[in-house]
Amino acid sequence: MIEKVFSIDIKAGAQRVWDEITRSGSPHHAMFGTYLHGPIAPGAVLSYRNKRGTHTFVLGEVLEVDAPRRLVHTFRFSMEQDAPTLVEWRLTEQGGVTRVTITHSRFEGETRTLKSVTTSWPAILALYKAVIETGRAPAGARFKNALMMSMSFMLPKSARTEVALAASTAVPGVERAGQSVR
Hints:
By secondary structure, the chain is of the alpha+beta class. It is about 25% helix and about 35% strand.
């Protein structure tokens, strides 16, 4: 199993960072302009969708929540056939700076998901830093996000929310809702 770790320091308290990464109802410019759906509670479905909710880009299940320090969820790109993986967000605050560490694990080899997240997590963390520290995403990111969202109708059938939600997000060997998944 392959594991990747990414981190960044953000000049803000852990609660402010937590509130930004877990908010719903407005676009996450750091997550390509998607909207986070679902409560942040163990057993809940977590998904990043377009504004109208018709297409889902990332889908998972919330496994552990220890606000504002830790969030663990499964992770699956709706447009890929790769097995679900595991993401852990860890927030550690010291002196008004919060270190955000993402550990993305359980890759079964050099999958397309692994290749994608290896470049996208550093960019996502940099955008969260910009949004939290300045209150606004850079204009280039907002433009790219708007363009990407306007093209949602071109996504494959697997990204349609009703299709994506039907797929499993369970990660073998990871405890889920009190049960070990095989």
